[in-house]
């Protein structure tokens, strides 16, 4: 979750959600099939692979916030930048990545956010 806290009025604080992670975890677990579960694969936290890593940088714009996602976050160790909708208080529809970057050795978005050349 991504939280915005209001210093004076707690009622103004907001939390933006990644959505129904338990439902996504259930679908992922079902996709493995009963054979994988019967083969004795170790049980692990089903939500661990779905949660985003901690936010290390973000940017927001108030202009036309009702028309499109208006927040972007960079996460530790993740080369993808994620958009968020303040109006819907949820993870946005877009993932931002450079098309030529390989998944495994791509610089993380947090590295780019902290590098003055970007």
UniProtKB/TrEMBL annotation:
InterPro entries (UniProt xref): WD40/YVTN_repeat-like_dom_sf
Record organism: Heterosigma akashiwo (Chromophytic alga)
Name this polypeptide is given: Uncharacterized protein
GO cellular component: Pwp2p-containing subcomplex of 90S preribosome; small-subunit processome
Chain positions covered by the region annotation Disordered: 1-45, 95-118
Biased composition (Basic residues): 21-30
The organism's taxonomic lineage, starting at the top: Eukaryota, Sar, Stramenopiles, Ochrophyta, Raphidophyceae
Biological process per Gene Ontology, one example term: rRNA processing
């Amino acid at each position: 979750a991504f939280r915005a806290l209001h210093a004076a009025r707690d009622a103004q604080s907001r939390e933006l959600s990644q959505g129904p992670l338990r439902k996504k975890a259930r679908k992922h677990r079902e996709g493995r099939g009963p054979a994988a579960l019967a083969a004795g694969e170790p049980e692990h936290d089903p939500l661990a692979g779905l949660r985003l890593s901690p936010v290390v940088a973000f940017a927001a714009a108030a202009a036309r916030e009702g028309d499109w996602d208006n927040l972007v976050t960079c996460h530790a160790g993740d080369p993808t930048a994620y958009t968020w909708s303040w109006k819907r208080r949820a993870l946005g529809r877009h993932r931002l990545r450079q098309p030529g970057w390989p998944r495994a050795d791509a610089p993380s978005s947090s590295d780019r956010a902290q590098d003055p050349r970007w």
